[in-house]
Amino acid sequence: MGVDPEEWQLTGAAAGRYERFLVPAVTLPWANDLVQRVGLYRGDRVLDVACGSGAATRVAARRVEEPGHVVGLDINPGMLAVARSLTLPRGSAQIEWCEGSALALPFAEGVFDAVLCQLGLQFVPDRPAAVREMRRVLGRGGHVGASVYAPIDRNPATHALADALDRHLGAGASRAKRHEHSLGDPNELRALFAGAGFEDVRMEQEKREDVNESFDDYWEPIEAGVGSIPQAYLTLSEADRRSVREEVKARDYRGSNRKGAYL
Questions:
Q1: Hey, where are the domains in the chain?
Q2: d(Cα 79, Cα 249) in Å, to the nearest integer?
């Protein structure tokens, strides 16, 4: 199932709202988990592909410290503008922010010790090409860590939201939201990396809850149109938006949105 990049690219204030709302509750906890699993070391050279506003990039920079070198690459200039505006703790490696495509990484062969890709590979239009590029820029003995969401039916609140969007806005309204989970088959993911020549491909599933204290905290970024929420939702009347909200809240929502990831 394809998805128009315009449905999930964020510009201007929307990129800032992404950093404010979604990074603390969703992206940063997964970033910490991914970097810990990959096992970065002081002085490593690290590339973060599809870095967004740079949550995993900044975690990596803290881990490899000043001798290291970290590059955050994304195709979205709005997200990179937010990333560049944020400060790093003292002692972190300097970060080079680079606008570019995962399909044609602007780096020589074998220049990185580790490559990260957090919750972004599912959006790349040619996934095999992107994974081959990750392998190309990886040095001998290096390693890649990628995370993607598990199938949407294992994420209760997201599943309920997607169904509600389709019901209130028409079939297909949730296409971008569902696409977040389009690489949730572990066999497909394993084959993707094995097909690019990676050996010892390990798959682990982790389940955690988004850091939301209440349903209202979960819903705030949705009401702000952050992430893969169709703009048509924001044009609904207040009463219709409230109906969507109550439908999601009533259907299998247990305080916070459980999300699984294959790593």
A1: 5-152+178-211+257-262
A2: 30
